[in-house]
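Minutes, project check-in

Agenda point 3 was the complex the collaborators sent over. CS summarized: two entities, 576 residues total, and the question is how they sit relative to each other. Sequences were read into the notes so everyone works from the same version.
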Amino acid sequence: MVENRPLLNILTHAFLLLGFAIVALPVYVAVIASTHDIATLMSGPVPLWPGSHFIENYTQILTSASAANGLPNYSHMALNSLIMALVITVGKIAISILSAFAIVYFRFPFRVLAFWIIFVTLMLPVEVRIMPTYKIVADLGLLNSWAGLTIPLIASATATFLFRQFFMTIPDEILEAARVDGAGPMKFFRDILLPLSRTNIGALSVILFIYGWVQYLWPLLVTTDPGYYTLMMGMKRMVTVQDGVIQWNLVMAGAVLAMLPPILIVIFMQRLFIRGLTETEK
Amino acid sequence: MDTKKTTFNNRLLPYLLLAPQLFITLVFFIWPAAQAVKSSFEREDPFGLSTVFVGLLHYERLFDDPNYLDALSRTAVFAVSVTALSMLLGLAFAASVDRLVRSGKVYTTLLVWPYAVAPVVAGVLWWFLFNSSTGLMPFFLEKIGIHWDHDLNGTQAMILIIIAAAWKQVSYNFLFFLAGLQSVPQSLMEAAAIDGSGPVKRFWTISLPLLSPTTFFLFIINVNYTMFDTFPIVDATTVGGPAQATTTLVYKVYQDGYLGLNLGSSSAQSVLLMLIVMVLTFVQFRYVERRVQY
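CS then shared the predicted structure for the full assembly.
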């Protein structure tokens, strides 16, 4: 700070606290709503203080809740979300670090072409090629399968660029020394590059885990079997009741469960998260 | 595109290393995109038995279709509103946190977590908050004479998804603006202060101009985000309604293709969207400085 301005400092704190209050409002209301029963919620605006149905609502949703909508319980869907997020994280990092290694440490025909093919994925998000991608996954018999749910999402240009950029900063002398000592490419990769990339892998994992956890459109397209539903599918199914009342208390309990893991990761791994976000830049 | 000066000289290995990434990219990205381009020029009979080349017919129909033109202008309104709202708030938070020496970290933690909330959850949270029978907001809005019902009022439905989409994106903009502000040289600020300019003037005349690369970068990223990553918000709350009032371009591709099975039109829409992403990506990589440096 350049100079001391007590009044401005107070205003700054007031503004930030107000900002936080507004940002946190929907989450606060969701937590509150998840502790009331549906009768209380339907009888007027949401109360501002917690009710007494916390344990009841969460037990119901974690064990049996949504059976009425043909949904598996939330523990099952949470496990599916976790598997999907982990497979995507590990898969993206694995294939990207290998691609970056090939592009930086080898000279071979079509190297630049390979780089551009990977780059193109940035321009083709799932949202713009819904039908044809769905058709290919269907033709390959991958609908309602873990492979169909995860593999098409594993390609990653940003992760490849990040590793490429990082590898370019590693001094050439390290490679030369390794070669003098007789290390082959895979030994060099395993014993030198991989340990050096630890921080980058950590930072990317945080971002990619969140990316995998919040996936919505893709699971919506390729899974019709409730056994594969993730928490995000559960959200959608619970709020689309044909005729009847939306069970807001359970929906909000579900929302809280669906957002808790990634929020905790961001808060407790903040340093890695910010690093991952600002370095992948997308 | 450089390699290292010294490289390994295996012939086969680099292809093996690239194989998984290239395989997935070709099968699940490039092939479907090519299919979309192809079927945007064709018409398939209802049984899928034969296809005829129809040239630009699907494209011409789209641009004669008031529904599509509406979706186009609505998407523009949506993208600009979300971008403006979330960038302004992000900048205001970042400028405030940047002023505070000791408590800055605490506020950063308090403000970053919405990034981790899934778009579908963000949509449902705000939808509940504005729900006409149980929500908190309509209750207060009624007291100042505004009747809120986003199930009937298209403008209100649009405002709802703008708020939900912007809410999620504020933390992203906040972090990038904060990083930008923190790399503004302290010496500039001190010199300006000695010359007698106060914090507000310093912000407008020093920080803001130096933030312009960040601002431009964020503008592109935010437009991209609003156009493509907000699908879950629409799908889980308004479902494009009421009366198409919140049908964005991406949502229309989904409606016409996946739900309506109108392959030709959906493909033509996909191709147009691809062109938009290509322009955005091109601008991002061509004109945006990758790092904020002063």
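Noted in discussion: Chain B touches chain A through 106 residues (CB under 8 Å).
Follow-up: revisit at the next meeting once the mutant set is ready.
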